[in-house]
Amino acid sequence: MTAAVAGADDERKAQALVRDDAPKLLAALKEMKDGLDLVRSKVESLTRKVRKNQLPTGDGIGYLEAKHHLLLSYCQDLVYYLLRKAKGLSVDGHPVVRSLVEIRLFLEKIRPIDKKMEYQIQKLTNAADGAAAQDKVPDDEVNVKGRQQGEDDLLGYRPNPDMMDPKIVSEGQGKDGIYVPPRIGPAAMDDSHSKDAVRKEKRLLRMATENPYFKEMIDDAADRPEEWKETAGDESKEFMAYMRQREKQEKAEEELFTRAPVTKREKYMEKQMKKQLHGLQGLTDGFDLGMNTLLDGEKEDDGGSSEPRRQSAGRRKHQKGGKRKRH
C-alpha cells in the first residue's frame, strides 16, 4: 500500500513538472527546429560544393575556424541540455551548464573582433567570388573588364578608417567633444656626460669669480672703481671660504633669531684668519722714529751745533710722548 502511494506521488510530481516546463520546452524545440532547418540547408549546399572541389578548404582564416568550432560545441551542448530536459532529468550543477556559459561568454567577448574583421572578410569573400566568376567568363571579356576595373579592385583593399580603435581617435577629446591635450609633460633625459659638463662649468665659474686676478680684470673691463683694501691676504681661497661660511651662518641666525653655537674648530679658524690678516700691521709702527734718528745722526757727524741736538732730543721726547698717547 505504501509503495503504491509513493509511486502515485512520483507520477503526480512528474506530471506537474512536465506541465510547468512543457511551454518552455515546446518553444525551445520550435526554435531549435527552425535553426536546424536553416543550418541543414546551408551545410548541405556547402558540402556539395566541397565535394565538387568548388570551395577550397585549405589556407583559410584561422579566426573563423576557431569561431566555427566554438559554435559547433555550443550547439552540441545545447542539444544535450534539451535532451536532458526532455527526459525530465535535472540539470542543476551539471557540467553542460558550465560549458554553455563559458562558450557563450567567449562568443560575447569576440563580438568586437567580428565587427573589425567584417570589412576584411567581406573584401576577401568578394575577391574570391570575383575570381571564381572570371574563370567562367571567356578570355576576351576578361581582358576588357580587367582594364576597366583593375584600378577599382586595387582601391578596394584600401584601409578602412572605421576599423581604427575608438580609444586612439578620442584620446585627446573630452566628454563634450572638446580637444584636451594629454597630460604628459616632456621629461628631459640627462645622461652622465651632460651632468658632468654642467658640474664642471659651475666649478669653473665659481673659481673665476673667486680668483682676485679675474675679478680685477672684470672690474677693469666694466670700468668699476678700484677697491682699496686695508689689509693684505683677504683675497686668499681660505679667507673666501671662511667668509662664505660666516655669511651663511649669519643669515641662519637672522632667520631663527638666535645665536648659533661656535665650535672649537670655528674658533680656531677665526683665530688663524685674524693672524693672517693682521700679522703685518705692527711692522711700520716705529718707521717714522727710526728715520728721524738716522737723519739726526748724520747731522752730528757733519759737525752741527748742540742746539739742533737738543731740538732733536726734544723732538724725540715729544714723539715718544705722542706714541704713548696713541697707545
UniProtKB/TrEMBL annotation:
This is Neuroguidin. PANTHER family: NEUROGUIDIN (PTHR13237:SF9), SOMETHING ABOUT SILENCING PROTEIN 10-RELATED (PTHR13237). The lineage of its organism: Eukaryota, Viridiplantae, Streptophyta, Embryophyta, Tracheophyta. Residues 281-327 are annotated as: Disordered. GO terms for biological process: maturation of SSU-rRNA from tricistronic rRNA transcript (SSU-rRNA, 5.8S rRNA, LSU-rRNA). Residues 312-327 have a biased composition (Basic residues). InterPro entries: Sas10/Utp3/C1D. One of its GO terms (cellular component) is small-subunit processome.
